Amino acid sequence: MAEKLEDLNLPLTVVGRIVKEVLPEGVSISKEARTGLAKAASVFVLYVTSAATNTVKHHKRKALTGQDVLEAMADIEFERFVEPLREALEQYKLAVSAKKSAGKKKEDDDIEMVEEDG
Question: In tens digits, what is the pLDDT along the chain, a chain of 118 residues?
């Protein structure tokens, strides 16, 4: 668990990068606004995590999954975000799977090269 409350805040650089991606060209954000958004995002993440933890406890499990987060979002009345999040989770799983497959293929290729050299 975090030692200080500030340890639970999202990094300002990460929040700033996300905000810059969605702001129209030529629009900037003050440090005060970036700090406010970072604190609000941190509170939201803690709120969703708490709701997802309740879901995990309800199902008598110990590990929190992406599905628990989706269920929690619906429970806390953020249903309109569930489908976009579900799609993002699927894309993430595909990317991780592709990365693992690419790593496995490279490993297999490396083994073949060693066998050919031997």
Answer: 566 666 778 888 888 889 989 999 999 889 899 999 999 999 999 999 999 999 999 999 999 999 999 999 999 999 999 999 999 999 999 999 998 888 776 666 655 555 555 5
Contact 55, 71 (CB under 8 A): yes
Q: Are 29 and 19 in contact (CB under 8 A)?
A: yes
Tokens (6 digits) for 29: 């954000």
Residue 58, SS3?
helix
HSE-up of 90 (CA within 13 Å, CB side)? 6
